[in-house]
Protein 1
Amino acid sequence: MNPADILAGAAVPDSPKLYVIGSFDKRITFYSQQARALSLVHALHDQGHLKDCKRVAVIGAGAAGVTAAAALLLATSAKVVLFDSAPNMLSLQGATERRKLDPHIYDWPKIDTTDRAANLPLLDWESGSSKQVRMDVIKQFEQIVACRPELEKKLGCKVTKIERDDKVYKVAFTRIGSAANPVPEDDNPGYFDMVFLAIGFGVEPKQAIRGVRSASYWSDAGVPGPEFDGRPSPSFFISGNGDGGLIDFVAAASSDFNHGTMLSLITENLRMEAVRSALQDIDKRAREVEPGQPPLDLWAAYETEIHPLIRDNGLVHQFRMQMRPGVRLVLQTREKQIFSLDTAVLNRLAVYVSVKACQEIGAHIFKHIHCGEVTSTISDDDGYLLNCDGIGEIAADEVIVRRGPNRDAVREPFQNVLNAYGEAHARWLARYKNMTVVPGLSQDARSFFEKLCRDAGVPPSPRIQNAAIRARRFKMTRDGTNIHWTGAVAKTDLAQIWSTSNYYELVLADGAESLGKMAPLVLRIAGHCKNLTVYSDRVFWDGLIKSVIDKGPAKGLNKPLFGEGLPAGATEEPHDFPLEALAEELHHHLDRWVLTKVDNYISKFLADGTEEGTDIALTIAQDLREMMAVTWKNWTALFDADPALLGNFLCLMMNSNHAEHPAARVLVGPSSTSEIILGVVVSLAIASCWNSVGPKAALPGNLHRKFDAEPEWAGHTFAATRINGKHTLRNVAEGMWRTEFVVLAVDGALDSERASNLSFRDNSSDELTFSVPLGHEPVMLTLSGQFCEAMELGAAALTKFLAGVDARRFIRWDNVIDKRTAA
Ligand SMILES: Cc1cc2nc3c(=O)[nH]c(=O)nc-3n(C[C@H](O)[C@H](O)[C@H](O)COP(=O)(O)OP(=O)(O)OC[C@H]3O[C@@H](n4cnc5c(N)ncnc54)[C@H](O)[C@@H]3O)c2cc1C
């Protein structure tokens, strides 16, 4: 939605500069109201409506009003007056530790909804008890007020009327403040040129069922507690199937309800993929039912499609372990259907699993009734007898009434403007449909407020400050042909994990198979560092680890460090990237990281012959080093221009005949940088004194040697000291090389002459079984004594040595011909 659409959804018809925040919307949460408020203030700024604003009234200091007031303080220089009939800001959330606020969980099982962080540019928070969230938000609100003091709080003031008076609004209020909250009367009514109605939805009536006093949802007493007086079969009557009713149904069913634990039983469960997609599919079908057609029976769909899945994945069993012993539950709804589409899928699922757990344990009873009226005929210390219209009497020890707040009461003072708004808003909702269900914050709005906060000197939120000292968590999730990438590490920063000692956590809901080409990349990044924990189901990685690390090309590489479970969060900064292209791009980032390390080390060595470590440990004459420096400059320019060239060069540095193995690149990283450095130095020395040797992009090999008259040679410069766990020199006779020359950056007894005759000697029986065409067995160059001596003496000596290698190869080729003739 663009800013004009957002304004259209909030503006009251025929009442210029009067806006409503969310009070007529569905799926209201603390977070969504904040997002609505920020989007609205940003849209007003964007459309130029805040320019001449001098005095703004914000009526209601709940999540919507407090956020709107903070945003207005930052975005305008207007005086902002914040009214609330309650004596405190965010009054609803102030009374309970037992209700948990989660910013995004309402939209589970959509992707990225388990993030604990609201991730808002101001008044940010992360999931916690209702009281804690309130405290965090108020603290930040006061920090903004300290930077932008143009705020007046009128707490304990109930607005009784707003009227348009020429070009301004007259806002009348009655004071219900206490002595602790004195309110000046002299500005009543107040005059404002812009007004926000952030009045929320009201509170639940005290006796929604006559004769039953049900504690408020927002109080600790409203949450069913554990058994303490030994009732063998406690009975609960829960009235209402909105989100409050569903949550308290689960609380009543549980022996010791903890909202957070209940949520994580579902959302952090590793075996929920099938359940998630089945739930999404059911909701999609339910939403697609045409108006006038009977609605999809959600309960019936759960029975056929969800029950087998949650029974098989152990979720019902887990809930069984938590059931209140002997509990009997009655859920009363006004509608025939148990579940309504307007509620959170997570709450529906939790109720459904609780019922299935109930049914599995014989002693537990669940009953659904639908009826309009319920009255209490008897209520005494022993409980209630409830008369349910058309059904008869039902006894219950406890009655929990969650029939929603009294909206009419809260709207009553504003009827003069809200009637018109209600109708206009219903049309707006119908027009934008699903876009209005989950309001998000546009990147423009986010950047706008981030800048305002920075400019005003507002300190970062406690969440951001805490995050700075915690492990940085990021997530990759397969989504069709894409990878959905989220969290605190951008793809361009992936290689930084290798550079720092900070801790990182990578969350992967998918196993190696479904991640395809991304899976070896995970092994590559994790195998080269100890500060990354991978959260995924290890079982789905065992095969790849076996084939790549235990028995494959990366023998000896560290296995990823796996953490327990699938932690929530890391859903900020969402991006979707095509899987294969992403894997390629990330390998290239990692290759660049290695190249930079190699370049820093080698450049210093070539300049002055010294090194910080002992990776090279060779003495090379200055004239040769100068020639090598020129060669290196040319090579790095080629690497900069061609990622595939660099990728192939480094990959073959660590892989003998595994270049086409899908996981061949995993060996290239910090653990192999020392070997690669030596390999590059040896290759550079040879390239500087042998004609036209340079890096090569395509197999076979990673070097070429060009000649004027002959076809070019492919070469393989190889730096790993081990191949499949065996010392490199023990592998050279195995016919694994596919190129005309091989440079092995390993010390050893094998000198160039022996190496160049090796395959010939090994095949000195009368049967010549070369694995390469006759006369094309590779010229092998290793760090032999002669080679090292030549480098020490300088360019002329090395050139002479290499010319000798060429000459001997020519003689050897003649020998082959002779043998063949003799045979
Ligand atoms: C039973 C129930 C359960 C819920 N559970 C959750 C949950 O688990 N998580 C969640 O995120 N959300 C939940 N919600 C939604 C919750 O209402 C919002 O999260 C949040 O409180 C909405 O903020 P708000 O600012 O729009 O409204 P409110 O928080 O209601 O704030 C509106 C404010 O306006 C004031 N006001 C109203 N009229 C006047 C007037 N005439 N003059 C002066 N002041 C006035 C009120 O005193 C109030 O402080 C639940 C709601 C209900 C009813």
Protein 2
Amino acid sequence: MFTRARHIAVCRLLRLAGRRFTATVSGPTPLEPIIEDTIKTIGPISLSKFMRTCLTHPEHGYYIHKDPLDKNSGDFITAPEMSVAYGMTCGLAFVRMFLAQLQYQSRHNPDFKVKDKIFRVIEFGPGKGSMMRGLAMVFKQYIIDNPVEIVMVEKSDILIREQHKLLCKSQKLEQVDDYNFESITEWGQPITWQKNDLVELDLDSKYMNFVVAHEFFDALPIDRYIKTKHGWREYLVDVREPEAGRPGKFGLVVAPHATPGSFIPATNERYNKLAVGANVEISADAHMYASQFAKIINSGDVGGALIIDYGPKDTIPINSLRGIKDHKFVDPFSEPGKIDLSVDVDFLGLSRLFESQGLKTMIETQSQFLNSSGLPSILGGLAFSMKEQQQRFETLYQRLTGSAPQDMGRAYKALQVYRNANKTT
Ligand SMILES: C[S@@+](CC[C@H](N)C(=O)[O-])C[C@H]1O[C@@H](n2cnc3c(N)ncnc32)[C@H](O)[C@@H]1O
């Protein structure tokens, strides 16, 4: 089973061996002439524009025209797809966050009345809906005194239909307009879907908002910069001559002069203090989404977020862009729109942004997070009820929490964000 974490480990090994990517047999994809024409007309384009076109172009974008998680034709597998136990463990983490904040409210806010509140859970990039399935099951059991509402933020019509099938069974999917859908989950919770970049939510304080994003931030576009002795310069995507072992039509070049983007690292101390020769990746989209998360959480007295992805815990990501296809890694500039693109997430940058908005944060490895949030008990319960599958659950536990290169316990990080001064531990 190929997870994107395994990809990183293998990628590092191959980098050491001096061969970075497997060559793919690439014919022209529908996006290739579109990108080439743009570059020929306006010159080399930013990396984020290239990535956004490849991933979410309204017709030919990777996430728009295929189900990347399909069992037969998919390109990778994620933890929520391995077992419902993963989503359930994340659900328990939210319940614990919620209960700790109720305790805080009861001590510090005499006006807070929990019985008047709606528990709203908002998932960004929900894939096939498996994380939300685990969460909804747990919320049905533990959030019994409050109505639960679900919002899914998803760009892909194909995945919206998959999520609806998994979560709502025979309930009809109603299309409200081009960007919005609604239904009812099999547990009776109202559920809506939004395709917009800027999420539209009623931010009334009657809501307690809990936001979840699993392998969402790694799919957001980045820009890449290098510090030269003349200042910061941006890497741009240009058309390149074909080369043996490099089948893609595009590649990176360093802009000869400062570009508008290069003012971002130049005016930010976190980057600007780095030495000449430093490379950094910066995602304005990640910043935009995290700012939305903060605004949503801060609109209620109680709320939080859980972001799980891979990336370093406390350093700036560098040179992490990779292409993924057929459970293998490929040149990220090959077959635009036909391969997944993925980057390391800047956990420290996200955490600082949340803290600047008055929120508390905690970054752990996935192993620490799952172990302290109840995965062993959930798997133990499942293994007890399905005795013949005991070995399967042991293997799953190892895969999710282990620290070997093929395991996910160390490469993946969990960032928890809280309203108020509550820690979950
Ligand atoms: C790598 S998949 C992860 C899916 C799921 N969370 C999981 O872990 O199995 C990325 C998800 O984010 C969605 N996505 C990517 N870019 C998006 C964007 N800009 N806005 C909304 N959804 C997006 C994709 O369609 C997909 O559902």
